[in-house]
Amino acid sequence: MRRRNPRASTLTFDFIKMKKLIQTVAAVAIITSMTGCASTKCYFIDRGRDAADIVTLAAGVGLGAKVRLGPLDAGLLINHDTIGLRGGEAVVNHGGHGGDELRTLEFDTPLKSIDGFDYGYDRHKNYMAKGKYGFSQLEEQYKQNRAYYSQIEIVCAMLGSIRLGVNLGELADFILGWTTIDIFNDDLEAKKREEKSNKVQQDTR
């Protein structure tokens, strides 16, 4: 009768354990990397939207001209924005007002993302502002849009219109956003991830 080598059996057993350990570590590494990629993707989506928030470029129809420095404005303008980049999104106007009415009433609420989602509402970028004597103030329900007060823009209209703007507050939000500081509370993907995480914790409990 052939005797089994105890050392060989031990080596075989150690190899099996090592193989299982490697497989476990590999599985954990894959799951961790996938989670990291998802978080990274959300992070860069928010950074991209923050970058887009800085610049305003819109076209429409109207007559007149206007310059706005935050809540201060000067000029006479009747304008209806129809398409452009506003509030960090490529937008189109689906009806209603989309611009300024003789310096006294300014709308942005009907503007929606081209893909159909109203990111402006969720990210506090929509607004309605009333004003006179060159000073505008946000309506109560849009007070969360603090970026309105750091916008610098000019609108020129002669049948066709063009709106150009830059937002210094959004520039600061973009720079600080790389450190996850969100001064305008507009990092939508980070909010979704946090809400999902909280829901998972509640379900676990």
Q: How would you portray this structure in words?
A:
The chain has 205 residues and is α+β, with helices and mostly antiparallel strands. It has one domain. The protein has helices at 6-54, 119-122, 168-177, 188-204, and strands spanning 55-69, 72-86, 89-93, 100-101, 105-107, 111-113, 128-132, 135-138, 151-167. The strands form 2 sheets. It has a 5-stranded antiparallel sheet. Strands 4-5-7-8 form a 4-stranded antiparallel sheet, with no helix packed on it. The longest helix is centred in the N-terminal third of the chain and has 49 residues, at 6-54. It is elongated and about 90 Å long.
The residue-averaged pLDDT reads 75
Strand order of the largest sheet: 6-3-2-1-9
State the end-to-end distance: 59 Å
Q: What is the helix fraction of residues, given as a range?
A: 25-40%
How many β-strand stretches? 9
- Strand proportion, as a percent range, falls in 25-35%
Please identify the structural class as seen in this structure: alpha+beta
Major β-sheet profile: 5 strands, antiparallel
Provide the gyration radius in Å: 27 Å
Count of discrete alpha- or pi-helical segments spanning 4 or more residues: 4
Low-confidence stretches: 29-37, 94-104, 108-116
